[in-house]
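A quick aside before the break. I want you to see a complete sequence-to-structure record at least once, exactly as it would be stored in a machine-readable document. Don't worry about memorizing anything.
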Amino acid sequence: MSTASDYLWYIPNQVKAGHRGDTAREGHNSLDTLTAQALALERHGWQGALLGAGWGRPDTFTVATALAARTTSFQPLIAIRPGYWRPANFASSAATLDHLSGGRVRVNIVSGQDDLAAYGDSEGDQTHRYARTKEFMRLVRRLWTEENVTYQGAHFQVASSTVLPRIEGRIEQGGERRHPRLYFGGASAAAEKVSATEADVQLFWGEPLADIAERIARLKALSATLDRDLPPLQFGLRITTLVRDTTEQAWADAEARVAQMAQQAGVDRDHRRFAAVGQQRLLGLQERGEVLDDNLYTTPGKFGGGGAATTWLVGSAQDVARSLLKYQALGITHFVLSDTPYLEEIERQGEQLLPLLRQNNAAPSLALASEQG
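That is the input. The structure line, written in tokens, reads:
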């Protein structure tokens, strides 16, 4: 059975131009430029975009607010950190933006590395970090859906707190929506326990199909073991998609780009010592081959590709669509895709890739064709 999926893009929200090979334009991070990307996403069938976050970038929530004001359907997936925000402050801000935008807010909770000292945060070791994240997610959800919330936790406290405007009861097109979805990543055992109990959507990076299937099965089992009291956990994929008119052109461009990365980057042979568990998993894929499954390219990670740029799905629109549909068959229903130059690829992939994916949501013929060929 075909399942409807969400398709989002990525807006890097970077101070420096040329992020991951993007065209270094004047005013690359101006409101006009970012709005042009958001409007292009609307025109070309994307539902919204993940906004990059971290100290040293423009404030993500402020950028999301500005883009929501200049668009009509664009849904910002706002990456935020529990140590940067207090739960009640964030719950109120998000509820306000969600109200003003007509229910368009999505939230990506991030617990990874950041320049914590720059904004006065100290999150301790991994156990402390994820325990705090778990409390944050639970408390924010309560503040969105309950009144007069009193909570005394190890990390956060509120007394008789009611967030206005109210979110509870709002209906999202396609189903009931009590509050903005909470997306969450992380591959460590501690992170998976948080996701299994508190997240609405677990985001994966670009791992092979068998690895994703294993992680989905483990998270479902964890959800049952940990007595999850929320709707079933959903799953998402954040990955780079390099799409060209033909398979041959796509691979030629991918290899040329990696060769350029190799020339420009002084490769840190010890970089995986400092990487989070999820990043280490991606870097380890290089040892299993340059290309895994049909077209999962692992070589970019050798030359500085990090996060979603560590592995790429490479090929024609048909090639990449078949691969994404195989992830969908495993249970992935949220896709966050990207490639550079960002604006041009919003348009190219919106015109070439998205129609194939949405066609499958209406008729599974493409998925069947992928299994046969």
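Two observations worth writing down. Residues 267-274, 365-373 have pLDDT under 50 and may be disordered. The first strand starts at residue 6 and ends at 11. We'll return to this after the break.
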